[in-house]
Predict the structure.
Amino acid sequence: MIKVYTEKILGQQWLDRYRGTLPIFSCVLGFTETGLIPGISAAGATPEARKSTAIADAEYLLHGFRPQPENPLPALVAGASPVLISRAVVQELQIPVYLFNAGLPYVPATLGAIDLGGTPAQCVSSGMALPLEIVQRLFNQGYHWGEKLADSDSYLILSECVVGGTTTALAVLTGLGIDAIGKVNSSHPTCNHQQKWQVVQTGLRKSGLISPNIIPDKINSPDFDYLSCDPFTLVAAVGDPMQIVVAGMTLGASQHCGVLLAGGTQMLAVYALARSIAQTQNIPWQPQQVVVGTTRWVAEDATGDTVGLAEAIGNVPLLATQLSFAESRYPQLRAYEQGFVKEGVGAGGCAIAAHLYAGWDQERMLGSIEAGLGG
C-alpha cells in the first residue's frame, strides 16, 4: 500500500524505522490571493468559495460531519475534499492533531488554531507576496513549534491547506534554481501549466530577483538561466505563509525525530526551501529524517511530473499511498481516478500513517473514508 518512487533505499529505511509508530499530525493553514485567480484552482468552485476552503477543511478535520457546520466544505469543481481521508485516519487511530494559522483571511474563534502572527499573501504576480519581517517571524515560529512537537519516539506529519499553493510552489522552486516548469501538479484533471507559469514569471519580473531578460514567457522555452535567490527574500516576493512555517518546522523537528512532509509538489517545494535555508543560515540539516509522502494520484499524474521534480530537487525520498477509489460507491471519490482533487490536508501522509501504524489495507481504508460520506 506504500510505494517509494525516488531515493528508494532512504525511503524504505524511513518506513522501516517508523513502522508501528503512532505519529503526531500538524496542519498549517494559509492563504494566497493567487487562489482567487479565475481557473487557477479547483479547490473551490468559485474564487469566493476558495477564501473559506482552508477553514472548512480544518473544521471538518477536527469535528467531522455536522448537520449545520459554521463553514461547510465548499463545492468543488468535481470530487470531494481530501480532508475526508485525513479525518478518517486521525479519528480512528486517535492521532494528536495540531492546527496552525499561518495567515488566513479570517479565523472563526471556534477553530482553535494556534496563531503564528502571519498574514495572507498577496498574489504571486505582485512580486510582493509578504513583508520580509512576517516571513522571518513565521520561520522562527515554525522552527519553535517543530522543536516543541518533536517526539524522539515518534514522527511528525506536517501538512498544509493553501488554495493556489501549487502556483506558489512553482514560484519558489524556480527562484531556488530548480527546473520545475511543467512539473508541478494541480487540483484540475489536466494541470494548467501555462496559466501558472504566466502568473509566476510576472511575479519574478516584478520582484527584481531575477533579470526580466532571462525569464521566458512560455513554459517550453529552453533559454531560462536558473539563478538561486535568498530563500527568505524569495518567499517574501512570490511565496505563501505556509511554506516558510513548514520549512521552519521541518528544520526544527528533524533535529529530534522523523518528518513526513504530507503533500505533493507543495511539500517538495517546502523540502527544497528548508534545505536552502539550512545552507544559507548555517542551520543543521538532517535530510535522512525527512521524506515527502503523497497520494498515487499526485505521484502518477500524467499531466505533471512529480517524480521528475523530486529528482530535479535531488536526494528527496518521495513516497505515495497506493489507495484507489476506483471501486468506491461514491462518484465524489471516483472523481479522484479522473484526476480531480488528488491531494490536500495531508491526505496521502495520513493514508501512509494508517498503513504503517495499523496495517490498513485498501478495503479497510476505503470503508473508513466512505463512512465519512454516510456509507
Q: What stands out?
A: The chain has 15 helices and eight strands. Strands lie at 2-6, 24-30, 97-103, 114-115, 155-161, 258-262, 290-295, 318-321. The longest strand covers residues 24-30. The domain at 19-371 is CATH 3.40.50.10210 (Rossmann fold).
